[in-house]
Each structure stands twice: as structure tokens, then as C-alpha cells.
């Protein structure tokens, strides 16, 4: 069975009841849905992170992800630029030390 390479984009946003966070999540969900035909949202993911001050902090995360038609082996620059734009948009909207946008290669059975 042949496999088709895709770039999976994952966005990790803190799960806070604040309107700014909820608005950004809704906007990112719309963006991924219209750009790539859909996305998945996993809410309430438990996480931990180290602050710049040093202590570890437990946190709840919402994960949005989608598989794009881009193959990292041939369209790395485009996928990288798109991920950077998503990260920059999240930084503009939120007051966070870090925002994680991850891009990985996945292979779908066709």
C-alpha cells in the first residue's frame, strides 16, 4: 500500500477561560479548517513547563492539529514559513513566554 507524505501542524495553546485565549483558539480552528479542509482539537491536555524564573508550573493545554498537503521533504520552506506565521499570530494575540507550533512529517495510506 503506497504512503503519501504530509506535514502535520500542531499548535499548543494554554487552556485558559480568558476571552483572548478562547478567541485565538476559535480563529486558529477556522484558519486550519479553511486552509486545509479540517482540523482536530484536543482540549484539557495536562502539561508542565519551566518558567523563565525557574519553577515548574502545571498547566492545561488545548492542542489543535491538521495534516497539510505539503510534504516536508519537498516543501519545507513553505511549511516552515506557515508555522512561523501561526506562532507570530499567537504571540501578537497572547502574553506568553512561549507558544509551541510543531511541524512533523506523517504518512497517510492511500
Characteristics of this structure?
alpha+beta, four-stranded antiparallel sheet, globular
SSE layout and pairing:
Layout: E1 3-14, H1 19-36, E2 40-50, E3 56-68, H2 72-93, E4 100-109
Antiparallel strand pairs: 1-3, 1-4, 2-3
Describe the structure.
It contains 2 helices and 4 strands. By secondary structure, it is an alpha+beta fold. The chain has helices at 19-36, 72-93; strands at 3-14, 40-50, 56-68, 100-109. A hairpin with a 5-residue loop joins strand 2 (40-50) and strand 3 (56-68). The N and C termini lie close together (7 Å). The protein has one domain (3-109): Alpha-Beta Plaits, CATH 3.30.70. It has a 4-stranded antiparallel β-sheet, with helices on one face.
Give a short synopsis of this structure.
This protein has two helices and four strands. The protein is an alpha+beta fold and 110 residues long. The model has no long low-confidence stretch (mean pLDDT 93).
Structural class: alpha+beta
The coarse overall form would be globular
Radius of gyration: 15 Å
Kindly state the percentage of residues in helix.
25-40%
Low-confidence stretches: none
Strand order of the largest sheet: 2-3-1-4
- Strand count: 4
Beta fraction of the residues?
Answer: 35-45%
Domain module tally = 1
Amino acid at each position: 500500500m503506497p504512503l503519501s507524505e504530509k506535514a502535520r501542524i500542531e499548535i499548543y495553546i494554554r487552556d485558559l477561560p480568558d476571552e483572548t485565549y478562547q478567541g485565538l483558539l476559535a480563529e486558529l480552528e477556522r484558519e486550519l479548517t479553511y486552509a486545509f479542509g479540517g482540523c482536530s482539537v484536543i482540549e484539557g491536555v495536562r502539561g508542565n513547563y519551566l518558567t523563565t524564573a525557574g519553577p515548574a508550573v502545571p498547566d492545561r493545554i488545548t492542542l489543535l492539529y491538521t495534516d497539510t498537503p505539503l510534504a516536508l521533504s519537498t516543501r519545507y520552506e513553505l511549511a516552515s514559513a506557515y508555522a512561523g506565521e501561526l506562532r507570530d499570530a499567537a504571540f501578537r494575540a497572547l502574553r506568553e513566554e512561549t507558544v509551541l507550533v510543531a511541524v512533523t512529517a506523517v504518512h497517510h495510506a492511500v
